[in-house]
Design brief:
Order of helices and strands of chain A: HHHHHHHHHHH
CATH architecture of chain A: Orthogonal Bundle
CATH topology of chain A: MetI-like fold
CATH class of chain A: Mainly Alpha
Structural class of chain B: alpha+beta
Number of strands of chain A: 0
Number of helices of chain B: 8
Oligomer: heterodimer
CATH class of the largest domain in chain B: Alpha Beta
Helix content of chain A: over 70%
Strand content of chain A: under 5%
CATH architecture of the largest domain in chain B: 3-Layer(aba) Sandwich
Number of strands of chain B: 20
Largest sheet of chain A: none
CATH superfamily of the largest domain in chain B: P-loop containing nucleotide triphosphate hydrolases
CATH topology of the largest domain in chain B: Rossmann fold
Strand content of chain B: 35-45%
Distance between the termini of chain B: 26 Å
Largest sheet of chain B: 6 strands, mixed
Shape of chain A: globular
Number of domains of chain A: 1
Number of domains of chain B: 2
Structural class of chain A: mainly alpha
Order of helices and strands of chain B: EEEHEEEHHHEHEHEEHEEEEEEEEHEE
Helix content of chain B: 10-25%
């Protein structure tokens, strides 16, 4: 049913989404916590930058990533001068792009959850002898559980579904940067609607199941909910 | 002693708390809403960061010009206004949270606290299955189980209805009697203050306007609480005998004996009596054909006018001080002066504990 090309696209996609989600939780959690607690004057600027991928055409983001990460870009150039190679058109490049692209889908639910905990549980934990880091892991994280579930599912699903960024920065190299969403496009281009149906239908079902999980765990959840 | 010198800038005023209070018994911080009571308590706990403050509890300095001991290193018990049990843990988990982070918490000690607050049967419940009163009892137990050096309570009854308040108050009395750590209790309720306080710290608009033993404070004419029709004084007494025939108890105090309706207190237990200034009247001669049972010889200590028609009189019955509110006309008829010998007739008293 799935040919070798489709299979490798599936594997690359799962690998990409998994690694991206892990990195997103590691990076997004401290950012979300900071945003939920800070009274920093320019907090809105940071929030706007993180939210940019929500409205920016993915190709715009992909274009700038390519410019930055490519051989002639500042980051790519730096990597090359250090004896490495540019990460454009590599799996690593895809991960970097995906993390940036999906960041708001992880940061926003976490920030909402952390914000709704309020100051008091953390203060209570402090009076009971818990240090800052201790109370973060034993009070804030468990109380923000639904936020984490939402963040993981949305981060994963959104990475699976991206197209524009991947196309710009990944270059569709089979087994390396060729992902499902591009495979579907290729099938349609080649008029292989049957193959496209299998992949598209699979993604549709997968996305529905993941959202179902989020809504079941979190009755008050809404993707469009703002702070 | 507990010594405190703290300045905090609040929204509409500056909290300037400079006081020392005893490091035993219950000190009630009393004042109207918005007088800075909660901020002061939070500062004692280290939850409110202040600069250039000084704070010393017994031998430990928690704050001076160089050091600021963080809340989690202060070893305090803090009971917040509304219930603050962790929703992700059950009752046992909530209690364990503090125990795990403390040292030398023995099994017997845990048992004694669970018994004191009567929560042994609740341990396996989830926090959502508890009533408001039960939640607050668990929160108090959780605070006590870390063996705090001091217990800070921020209006722990204010979120509860009258019935729940009545349910919790006996447990607070038990804390008062059984614990040897100082308790600082914030409230704006005169009833709670007069029931629980040994020592009173009055706060108004961020300033300490007076502090001292509760009864001195209640009867000091330079303070607002000693004025108005709500003015009261307190008398500590001891149950010595009962009069079965009339269902009365005899309560001994340094100025004599009170006769009050029997409420089944054990002989030998100490009680706190509240004497409202409105319920005390004065005579020059000892009345004999009167329905009033509690009559004591007293000396007029000081008088202070109350509005246009009334006068507040502070009396000494031996070393005990009580207030009475009479009319100016009565004072004139009785020819009252400081030092006048009178008889105080106490029409009714309330037993507080």
């Amino acid at each position: 049913m799935l040919n070798e090309y489709d299979l490798s696209a599936l594997l690359v996609t799962i690998k990409l989404a998994s690694i991206t989600t892990v990195i997103l939780i590691l990076v997004g959690t401290p950012i979300a916590w900071w945003l939920s607690q800070t009274r920093f004057k320019f907090k809105a600027v940071i929030e706007a930058i993180i939210a940019l991928p929500l409205i920016l055409p993915p190709t715009v983001l992909g274009f700038y990533l390519l410019m930055t990460l490519g051989t002639n870009g500042p980051v790519g150039g730096l990597l090359e001068s250090l004896g490495g190679s540019s990460i454009a058109f590599t799996f690593t490049g895809l991960v970097v792009g995906s993390v940036i692209y999906s960041l708001p889908f992880v940061v926003q639910p976490l920030q909402n959850s952390f914000g709704s905990i309020g100051k008091q549980p953390m203060e209570v934990a402090a009076t009971l002898g818990a240090s800052k880091l201790d109370r973060f892991f034993t009070v804030a994280v468990p109380l923000a559980r639904s936020g984490f579930i939402t963040a993981i599912v949305l981060g994963f699903a959104h990475t699976v579904g991206e197209f524009g960024v991947v196309l710009m920065i990944g270059g569709n190299i089979p087994g390396e940067t060729g992902v499902l969403s591009i495979a579907i496009y290729d099938h349609v281009e080649a008029m292989e609607y049957g193959q496209a149906h299998i992949l598209a239908g699979g993604l549709l079902v997968l996305s529905f199941v993941m959202l179902l999980v989020v809504y079941m765990f979190n009755r008050r959840f809404s993707i469009m909910r703002s702070n | 002693m507990i010594e405190c010198k703290i300045k905090i800038e609040l929204d509409s005023f500056i909290l300037d708390a400079n006081f020392s209070i005893p490091d035993k018994g219950v000190t009630v911080i009393f004042g109207p809403s918005g007088s800075g009571k909660t901020s002061l308590l939070r500062a004692l706990a280290g939850l409110e960061k202040t600069h250039n403050g000084f704070l010393k509890i017994g031998d430990s300095i928690w704050q001076d010009s160089e050091n600021f001991v963080l809340t989690h290193n202060r070893q305090i018990g803090y009971v917040f206004q509304d219930t603050t049990l962790f929703a992700h843990l059950n009752v046992q988990g909530n209690l364990d949270y503090g125990i795990k982070r403390s040292s030398n918490i023995e099994k017997e000690f845990i048992d004694s606290i669970l018994n004191l607050l009567d929560i042994k049967t609740l341990l396996n419940r989830s926090t959502s299955q508890l009533s408001g009163g039960e939640k607050q009892r668990v929160a108090i137990a959780r605070a006590l189980l870390i063996k705090p050096k001091i217990l800070l309570m921020d209006e722990p009854l204010s979120a509860l209805d009258i019935k729940r308040k009545q349910e919790i108050l006996p447990y607070l009395d038990a804390l008062h009697n059984d614990l040897d750590i100082p308790i600082i209790y914030v409230t704006h309720s005169p009833a709670e203050a007069s029931r629980l306080a040994d020592y009173l710290l009055l706060l108004d608009h961020g300033k300490v306007i007076g502090s001292g033993p509760i009864n001195n404070m209640l009867t000091r004419f330079d303070l607002p609480i000693s004025h108005g029709s709500e003015a009261t004084s307190l008398v500590e007494a001891k149950v010595i005998s009962r009069e079965k025939e009339f269902n009365l108890m005899h309560l001994d105090f340094p100025g004599g004996e009170f006769l009050v309706p029997d409420n089944n207190l054990l002989i030998g237990s100490t009680v706190r009596l509240r004497v409202s200034a409105r319920d005390v009247s004065l005579t020059r001669e000892k009345q004999v054909d009167t329905s009033i049972l509690n009559i004591f010889p007293a000396i007029v200590d000081e008088m202070s006018p109350e509005g246009k028609a009334q006068i507040m009189v502070r009396l000494k019955i031996k070393e005990i001080t009580i207030l009475t509110l009479i009319t100016k006309k009565s004072a004139k008829i009785l020819d009252l002066k400081n030092g006048s010998k009178v008889f105080a007739q106490v029409k009714s008293v309330a037993i507080l504990s």
